[in-house]
Amino acid sequence: MTATAVLRAEWIKITTLRGTVWSLACVLVATAGFGILANASLSDAEPEGFDPLFSVLVGVGPGQIAAIVFGTLAVSSEYQSGLIRATLAAVPRRGLLYGAKLAHVGGLTLAVGLVTTLVSFLAGGAALGDRAPGLGDDGSLRGIVGGAVYLALMALLAAGLAAVLRSGVAVLGILIPFVLAVSMVFGGGSAGVADFLPDRAGQQVMYADPPTDLPPLAGLAVTALWAGAAVLAGWWTLRRRDA
Q1: Of 61, 150, 161, 243, most Cβ neighbours within 10 A?
Q2: CB atoms within 10 A of CB 46
Q3: In sequence order, which residues have a C-beta less than 8 Å from that of residue 173 and are 6 or more positions away?
């Protein structure tokens, strides 16, 4: 099959799976919804370390769970159903197949993420009121675009791990507790190893004044390295193992 045909086939798979479609929709709903609720309930007294940009984009934290689910299902669903055998018979070039899957995972998450972070910025800002940052403020555009890139990287991280473990349950059982608990536990200090965890590092791009010594774009680069390592591990696994 040609690259165009493989891309088209993978597009049909991803967009017709109920789980992947719903998880993408949940990226928007969870991010914007949590951001509105969090900012609407914020008292007039600003908490210590208050960052208005991160406040309006705070919903990206819960939204990343849906992005992780999307990336996981986009790869693991074929292993769970056994369809991967037919897929590899039709597309013996495993690198091409894997690249097509990742292109759709990253591209779709980025597209939905851009809409999500913009909606979250505007809706969260409306809920926050006078303290909300404007689109023209320093760091606002970086936060909106960077937040979308961060969501895409987390989806790719999940997709790479799914190719390694071949089990959606295993991937979600590792990543979701990791981003919900591990970073929080190790992130008690202002600096250290926690700053280089994929979620904590990448989220620095959504701060006007990052709370760690890691610059915003450098933090996003750290997350990209994590995602790249997972993607490469998935590629190696797909090439070396049988279906």
Answers
A1: 150
A2: 12
A3: none
CA distance 193 to 101: 32
Model confidence over 50-97: pLDDT tens digits?
888 998 999 999 999 999 999 999 999 988 888 888 888 888 888 999
Q: Is 139 left (phi over 0), alpha (psi -120 to 50) or beta?
A: left
Contact predicate 193/212, CB 8 Å: no
Give the H/E segment covering residue 90.
helix 84-90
181 SS3 class: helix
Distance CA 163, CA 224 (A): 17
> Please, are residues 239 and 86 in contact by the beta-carbon 8 Å criterion?
no
Residue-level pLDDT at 136:
83
Which residue type is seen at 5? A
Cα 191 to Cα 193: distance, rounded to the nearest angstrom: 7
Count CB-CB contacts under 10 A for residue 208. 17
pLDDT in tens, 117-137: 999 999 888 888 778 888 888
Task: For the beta carbon of residue 81, count every other beta carbon within 10 angstroms.
Answer: 11
The CA distance from 195 to 189, in Å, is: 9
235 and 102 Cβ atoms separated by less than 8 Å: no
Question: Which pLDDT does position 179 carry in this prediction?
Answer: 85
CA distances (Å), origin 127, targets 39, 132, 242: 6, 8, 52
Express each pLDDT in 158-192 by its tens digit.
999 999 999 999 999 999 988 887 666 655 444 57
CA distance 90 to 1: 7
